[in-house]
Amino acid sequence: MTITTAPAATAQDVAERDTLTDARSADAATGLIAALTAMPADHPGRPALRDRAIEAWLPLARHLAKRYSGRGELTDDLVQTATVGLIKAVDRFDASRGVDFAGYAIPTIVGEVKRHFRDRTWSIRVPRRLQEMRLAISEANNTLTHKLGRSPLVADIAAYLGVTEEEVLEGLEGARAYSATSLSTPIGPDGGTELGDTISDENNDYDEVDLRASIGPALAMLDAREQRIISLRFYGNLTQSQIADQLGISQMHVSRLLTKALTKLRGHMDVAAFS
User: Fold this and answer.
1) What is the pLDDT of residues 9-54, one digit of tens each?
2) Which of helix, strand or coil describes residue 111?
3) Is the separation of the CB atoms in 63 and 82 below 8 Å?
4) What are the E-state strand segments in the chain?
5) DSSP-assigned letters across all residues of 221-272
6) What range defines the domain where residue 36 resides?
7) What is the CATH number of the domain that holds 163?
């Protein structure tokens, strides 16, 4: 008895079979949309047909969602968002406008995914204008990198988008709010220190702010030589001897002038504190 086996399918056979299957699936999906569009809104069979049409076009939604994977969002979340866009496209499609369903559904689904990134994924809320600019800059960067064969400059992106370089820089600055870093993030060569460990938990910051805010007006109340001595001593970190050499006076004289200036400075700051 001779047993004859069928020859193994080649890669070309598999590709042709998949292409035929995809074509049949696309035809079936298109037919479901056509049938749904022609069916009266109050027809009892419409809900079931609508569900079948949505299921038939789900591969398109998944394909478009995966374009945006790797940008900090889970692929499952993107697929869900794209599916919402698909449902909107099915419900709003109007065949009388002369546009095929795919031509209408693709921008609807992509728009839904982009809104997801714009409205749901920012760590800090920024104006919508900056959110949209960030997306535009990202798309322009990808396009120009491929077109120019190098990373585009700010001027290149501005020219491509038809905006000013200042607007591009503003969009890039706003993009920093897109994601936040956890205070538990390990830092340092051994990873033994967390980012939160570098932030002071003392409550004297407000006192320092008040001091810095009041010292400027108080310094303005001193005469020019007193201001210079204070500046050289505490901002220039010069010794009294070095200050004396610069002013052409004795170190003892500098010491007396510095003491007098500090006394006046404290008096002005005390008055400001209680006024």
Assistant:
1) 454 444 444 444 455 677 888 888 889 888 888 899 999 999 999 9
2) helix
3) no
4) 186-187, 193-194
5) TS-HHHHHHHIIIIIS---HHHHHHHHTS-HHHHHHHHHHHHHHHHHHHHHH
6) 16-121
7) 1.10.10.10
From 102, 121, 140, give the residue that closes a domain. 121
Comparing CA positions, the residue from 201, 138, 137, 188 lying closest to residue 167 is 137
Mean pLDDT of the chain: 77
Nearest C-alpha neighbor of 170 from the set 187, 152, 158: 158
Position 135 scores a pLDDT of 77
Structure tokens at 250: 């004795």
State the DSSP H helix or E strand holding residue 205, giving kind and residue range, or none if neither: helix 205-220
Whether 95 maps to a domain, the answer reads yes
Identify whether residues 131 and 102 lie together within a single domain: no
Amino acid identity for residue 43 in this structure: H
Q: Which CATH number goes with the domain that contains 47?
A: 1.20.120.1810
CA–CA gap between residue 31 and residue 116 (Å, rounded): 30
